[in-house]
Amino acid sequence: MTAPNAAAVKRCIQKAVEQANIQPEAIDLIDGHLTATIKDSAEVTAWNEALQRRGDDFPMINSLKSMVGHCLSAAGSIECVASVLELYNGFIYPSLNSEDPHHEISVLINPAKIPQQLIHKDIQVIAKANFGFGDVNACVILKKFQS
Predict the structure, then answer these.
(1) d(C-alpha 58, C-alpha 29), whole Å
(2) Which residue ranges make up each domain of the chain?
(3) Pick from 73, 68, 131, 55: nearest CA to 96
(4) Which CATH superfamily is domain 6-143 in?
(5) What is the pTM of this model?
(6) pLDDT at residue 109 tops 90
(7) Residue 135 in 3-state DSSP?
(8) Which of the four pLDDT bands, split at 50, 70 and 90, describes residue 147?
(9) pLDDT digit string (tens) for 49-74?
(10) DSSP readout, 24-48?
(11) Contacts of the segment 17-21: beta carbons below 8 A, 24+ positions apart
């Protein structure tokens, strides 16, 4: 019941991108589920495959859990608010204590794509995802409003 389904995670990401009517290269930031467990590399692999982006082409990626822990059933809501604040205020919060990423992640993406400190940057599109027990997966695409 708790084992992540890599195919379902990938499909969830792809469907979100498709339904948002954007191209994968439009994504500036991934606010991942990323729980600081051995399964983080599987999540990054799913993002790689779903977006067809890797190495230096991979978007920035962070996780609020690095600062507040895993809020369980509230994680998606709290992290979505953090993503909206990033989008609105033009910053990318750091993923604390991630200065030495797992080697399986480092071969997929440039470790510089995991912010170690606050970055002030105007971002236009964030992919926010949470992947839960029993394959209850969610990915939303948040785009800055242009009047």
Answers:
(1) 9
(2) 6-143
(3) 68
(4) Thiolase/Chalcone synthase (3.40.47.10)
(5) 0.94
(6) yes
(7) helix
(8) confident
(9) 999 999 999 999 999 999 998 888 88
(10) GGG--EEE----SSTTHHHHHHHHH
(11) 17/50, 17/51, 17/127, 17/141, 19/141, 20/141, 20/143
